[in-house]
Amino acid sequence: MTGIGAETGIGTCELMAEADIAQDLEAKILSRRARIAVIGLGYVGLPLAIAMCKAGYHVVGIDINQDKLRLLAGGKSYVIDVPDSELQEAVSSGMLVPTREFDQLRDVDAVSICVPTPLRRSKDPDLSCLATAIDALKKYVHKGMLIILESTTYPGTTEELLRDTFEAMGYRAGVDLFICFSPERVDPGNPKFKTGDIPKIIGGISPRCTRLASLLYGSFISNIIPVSSTRTAEMVKLLENTFRSVNIALVNEMALLCERMGIDVWEVIDAASSKPFGFMPFYPGPGVGGHCIPLDPMYLFWRARCLDFYDRFIELASDINSNMPRHVVAKISRSLNRHRKCINGAKILILGVAYKRDVDDTRESPALEIYRLLAQDGASVIYHDPRCKRVFLDGEVIESAELTGELLESVDCVVLCTDHSTYDYEWIEKHSNLIVDTRNAFKGIKSSKIVKLGAPSIYDAPGIYEDIPGTIRFKELKEINEPKEVKEVKWSKETRGIKGELREFKELKELKDLKQPGGIKEAAATG
Ligand SMILES: NC(=O)c1ccc[n+]([C@@H]2O[C@H](COP(=O)([O-])OP(=O)(O)OC[C@H]3O[C@@H](n4cnc5c(N)ncnc54)[C@H](O)[C@@H]3O)[C@@H](O)[C@H]2O)c1
């Protein structure tokens, strides 16, 4: 015996059989005879399964959630990117079979795993859903199967949890079992990019694994990007989401600084975006949410820590982003204070609880954290969201209120957390008493009622800027906020200066008459 067979002790017949295994799968993929299973039919798995059906594959969709399976069987989609019509077509034609039964895996040629990968309370990875799915798969795995992990996780997971498990059972990854990692990059609610339009990264345990997965995914995704290993593919996803997390943290911090300096961060970002190279706009907000940005970087952080490597960017970004809800609550408190009100006993309406515009996903949503903090401080909190009819918060089910002019007029403060495109912002402004806008959703509407995150506000304490050279002065600030209606604003005569001393300000109309730029100091008679 010569060649590879001689070195490895594998006989020629065996080598041929192994080549046949890969060729057989290749032929099934090319002819669309390959049967596929998608494990986990959520925001990632369901659109993927539908894309596979549209490409001509028969797909078994496995999920453990009976409610979801019931909806799927009835042709009702719960994922924003999958219209009912597409789901009904796939289910009624028999191309998609939603089921809870893992024994269906016995006859499938390829499996895509799309189960959740959350964090524990300690912020360590929680891979229990993945472990359960792999356990179930162990019973039905067979030679020639292609297994692709889509769930976001730390570099090394595919090797440690999939390859090692199946090799311990006697399979040879890359030889008679094909294993890859291919990170899902779907952006729920994005009308421009759907599963088939987003370039797909694929990294296999071996080049043969990568080639087979590329062949399968390349039949319904226009751009396949093969990479050298599963670890690289895992790291690609974490780099992408860490990049977002860090940049969002940067603008969130800028927003806080701009508030203090009396600069509108939104205007700054818009102007900076005019640079045709080297700048990419990110926007501040009430915090980060969803199943990706708050979680994924922590997977990398955890793995790095195991290697005595402390990823300071990740930790700092997580710290800044997760503190944004508290900043918003402080802003609400200050704004109510100007009306001689406090959070305790105030009626507060949160508009939008989804973690981002035009989706129904409330996972990790900062709006819910703001809700919780306000309620803890004694506010009577209600919410409205056109896409989330009810939310589960601390074991309670809370229903979305009906959004009416009377409701807006009856609350002390409206907090805009999610800038859904269906909101009529002019109408909301007209009926509200006070608005804290965390998304610049009211852009272009001039009103003394609006307090914007990351921007100077008429509700900020007068005098806080006056002693700092080069920063905006209180009088100028009011003119920015209140170009026309300045006389209508009722101010308390007493307020505190930057050093905490009590000051008394004259009426605004008198302030307006002041001639010299530094006149604000003369206008203030110390109390
Ligand atoms: N949501 C996104 O925007 C997004 C984008 C890219 C990547 N991801 C990643 O994709 C993965 C899935 O996220 P998702 O948003 O689709 O989650 P999801 O919660 O919407 O869906 C996951 C589904 O898996 C099911 N499930 C859980 N354990 C199971 C098991 N053992 N067997 C079978 N089914 C099981 C759940 O019932 C659920 O229906 C996560 O790792 C996530 O980080 C998500």
Keywords for this entry:
N-(1-d-carboxylethyl)-l-norvaline Dehydrogenase, domain 2; Rossmann fold; alpha/beta; 3 domains; five-stranded parallel beta sheet; eight-stranded mixed beta sheet; elongated
Q: Helix count, per DSSP?
A: 18
If you compute it from the alpha carbons, what radius of gyration comes out, rounded to the nearest whole angstrom?
28 Å
* Structural class computed from helices and strand pairing: alpha/beta
The total tally of domains equals 3
Low-pLDDT segments, ≥5 res: 1-9, 461-473, 482-527
CATH fold-level topology of the largest domain = Rossmann fold
Please tell me the CATH architecture of the largest domain by its name.
3-Layer(aba) Sandwich
Strand content of the residues, in percent?
5-15%
Q: What is the CATH superfamily of the largest domain?
A: NAD(P)-binding Rossmann-like Domain
Globally, the shape reads elongated
Q: What is the CATH domain class of the largest domain?
A: Alpha Beta
Bound molecules: nicotinamide-adenine-dinucleotide
Number of strands: 18
Helicity level: 25-40%
Rounded mean pLDDT is: 88
Question: Order of strands across the widest beta sheet?
Answer: 3-2-1-4-5-6-7-8
N-C termini distance:
101 Å
Largest sheet: 8 strands, mixed
Description:
With 527 residues, the chain is α/β, with parallel strands linked by helices. The chain has three domains: 3-228, Rossmann fold (3-Layer(aba) Sandwich); 238-318, Orthogonal Bundle (N-(1-d-carboxylethyl)-l-norvaline Dehydrogenase, domain 2); 461-527, no CATH class. It is 40% helix and 13% strand. It has helices at 3-8, 12-30, 45-54, 66-73, 84-92, 128-140, 157-168, 207-217, 230-261, 265-272, 296-306, 312-338, 366-376, 405-410, 425-431, 474-481, 508-513, 519-523, and strands spanning 35-39, 58-62, 96-99, 110-113, 146-149, 178-181, 200-204, 224-227, 347-351, 380-384, 390-393, 396-399, 413-416, 435-437, 450-452, 494-496, 502-504, 525-526. It has an eight-stranded mixed β-sheet, with helices on both faces. A five-stranded parallel β-sheet has the order 10-9-13-14-15, with helices on one face. A three-stranded antiparallel β-sheet has the order 16-17-18. Strand 13 (413-416), helix 15 (425-431) and strand 14 form a beta-alpha-beta unit. Helix 2 (12-30) runs parallel beside helix 8 (207-217) and helix 9 (230-261) runs parallel beside helix 12. It is elongated and about 80 Å long. The model is unreliable at 1-9, 461-473 and 482-527 (pLDDT under 50). Residues 39-45, 62-65, 68, 114-117, 129, 132-133, 150-152, 184-186, 188, 290-292 line the site of nicotinamide-adenine-dinucleotide.
